[in-house]
Specification:
- The protein is of the alpha/beta class.
- Helices cover 36% and strands 17% of the residues.
- The protein has 5 helices and 5 strands.
- Strands 2-1-3-4-5 form a 5-stranded mixed β-sheet.
- Strand 3, helix 4 and strand 4 form a beta-alpha-beta unit.
- 44% of the residues are buried.
- The mean pLDDT is 95.
């Protein structure tokens, strides 16, 4: 189901979790995404900002991809790795494919909306022009606990 875990993947998820926690200040779901260059340099990081911006497309992955494209100077993010705390949704999976990201490393599975192997597998669909390597379950328990804690606090 998943690609091979690299030593840098754990560090990438630690960073994504750090970024995700910053979403709590605005009442956004704590999901974080970080784009890394092939050499491991961090290009961009973002957390969910739907509540903060009033933008339904302000998912962490989309915002991080936009910022990374500005840094690189073009929309093609070939050679990059996107680390995200929760399995991308269909919108984010589409953006990842369109950006030509080479690897996606994520933490927690999202069985309700996930598009990287749980509900759908948009990222690795054989009909897609670009199919990144997908590495799932890195720091999954920590990522799931962060989101679960957020929703538990909102349901009280």
């Amino acid at each position: 189901m998943s690609g091979s875990v690299r030593p840098a993947d754990d560090r990438a998820l630690v960073r994504a979790l750090e970024v995700a926690r910053s979403a709590l200040a605005t009442g956004d779901v704590p999901i974080g995404a970080v784009v890394f260059a092939a050499d491991g340099t961090e290009l961009a990081a973002a957390c969910n900002e739907r509540e903060a911006s009033g933008d339904p497309t302000a998912h962490a992955e989309v915002l991080a991809l936009r910022a990374a494209a500005r840094v690189v100077g073009e929309w093609r993010l070939t050679g990059t790795t996107l680390a995200v705390t929760v399995e991308p949704c269909t919108m984010c999976a589409g953006a990842i494919g369109l950006a030509r990201v080479d690897r996606v490393v994520f933490g927690a599975w999202e069985p309700k909306t996930g598009a990287a192997g749980s509900l759908w597998d948009v990222l690795r669909d054989r009909r897609s022009a670009h199919r990144p390597e997908v590495v799932a379950g890195v720091r999954a328990d920590e990522a799931a606990a962060l989101v679960a804690g957020f929703f538990a606090g909102h349901r009280r």
